[in-house]
Amino acid sequence: MTTPPNETPVLATNPASPGAPLGEAPSRIAATVDLGKDGKQHGYLRVPHSRNDSAWGFVQIPITVVGKGRGPTILLTGAAHGDEYEGPISLMKLSRAIDPDSITGRLIIVPALNLPAVKSATRLSPIDGVNLNRAYPGGRSGSISAMIADYVYRELVIAADIVVDFHSGGKTLDFVPCAVMHQLDDEGLFQQTLEALKAFGAPVGLVLRELDDEGMLDTAVESLGKPFISTELGGAGRVTAETMAITDRGVTNLLRHFGVLEASADPLGIGPAAVAETRLMHTPDADCFIASEHAGMFEMVADLGATVRKGDPVGRVHFHEDASAPAVTYLAGHDGLVLSRHCPGLIQRGDCLAVIATDFPSR
């Protein structure tokens, strides 16, 4: 069987749910848009949610599909966690502004993927308490988060050639704005993804070795051999003009990089094409991640973006219930950059206190 460029063969599928093999029940989520239709469509993913105040109710997750002719399909998602804002805002602007005549291929845009969490400004879904980005590949018979993950995986990821999932630090972490990819064993996929990482143009391009990647959308996409880009674009439960400018520029750069958006098109108003220089960094081992072993008041000693040497103090925990107890100082485990820091003034045992990123070796 010959596969046309930019098309993935899907064999023996269930016509009621194209991403599902024959014999498997279709997704319980219904889309009000046609993923294969040209032009621009705004609609919803209708997720069944029977509750006390709405017996036959739905959660309606906004989705925009923009298509024109043959070309790559890019899936763009935001707000897997409901307290992360740069990605969703940029994707909402893109959904409104994009002209179908300016693209070649298809965009599937889901700005507020975990809508219940967005409405409650929480990291986890307030309905089932699940972290959506640890729920993949999901399951049609599970809770609402499992249903969403199941639909995204079998209907949207399967249809896409490239997936971009936007994150930031939420209320509890703040980051030097970065585009993120995983360390990958597949050299071809690694190089393809690395080029996209650099094209995004964030101040830092992070090659991340996760401490735990079970159930992540990243892992689900990579297991299919498809490029996946994520981000950490700020945090502290806020949006700044700087982080929004980085996000809008990165979205535009990626669409141009993959040949979906015309070079002259500028739906987010970033101006002439310009890819900012990205500092490639990585987290080679667990020593990059500093976890607090104490509960107390948190003092940041090395600010976000500071350069530190191994053994330098990064933060301290003070014991507000015992003024006589000396503070505990946490030290950098590597030479590098303070990429991320804990935000709230109080810190608990096991909280991520800071992340130190080191320069990625030349290849």
Short key terms for the protein model shown above:
2 domains, alpha+beta, 6 helices, 363 residues, Aminopeptidase, 4-stranded antiparallel beta sheet
Describe, in short, the structure shown.
The chain is of the alpha+beta class.
Q: How is the main sheet built?
A: 15 strands, mixed
Give the quaternary arrangement of the chains. Answer: single chain
Rg over alpha carbons? 21 Å
In the residues, how many domains can be counted? 2
Superfamily (CATH H level) name of the largest domain: Zn peptidases
What is the succession of H and E elements? EEEEEEHEHHEEEHEHEHEEEEEEEEE
CATH architecture of the largest domain: 3-Layer(aba) Sandwich
SSE-based structural type: alpha+beta
Beta-strand residue fraction: 25-35%
Topology, pairings included?
Blueprint: E1 13-14, E2 17-21, E3 30-31, E4 39-48, E5 58-68, E6 73-78, H1 86-97, E7 105-110, H2 115-120, H3 144-157, E8 162-166, E9 173-175, E10 178-182, H4 187-200, E11 204-208, H5 217-222, E12 228-232, H6 241-257, E13 279-283, E14 289-291, E15 296-300, E16 307-308, E17 313-318, E18 328-331, E19 336-342, E20 346-347, E21 352-359
Parallel strand pairs: 6-7, 6-8, 8-12, 10-11, 11-13
Antiparallel strand pairs: 1-2, 3-4, 4-5, 5-7, 9-19, 10-12, 13-21, 14-21, 15-17, 15-20, 16-19, 17-18, 19-21
Helix pairs in contact: 1-6
Task: Explain what the structure shows.
- The chain has 363 residues and is of the alpha+beta class.
- It has two domains: 13-283, 3-Layer(aba) Sandwich (Aminopeptidase); 287-359, Beta Barrel (OB fold (Dihydrolipoamide Acetyltransferase, E2P)), CATH 2.40.50.
- Helices cover 19% and strands 29% of the residues.
- It has a 15-stranded mixed sheet that branches.
- α1 packs across α6.
- The chain is globular.
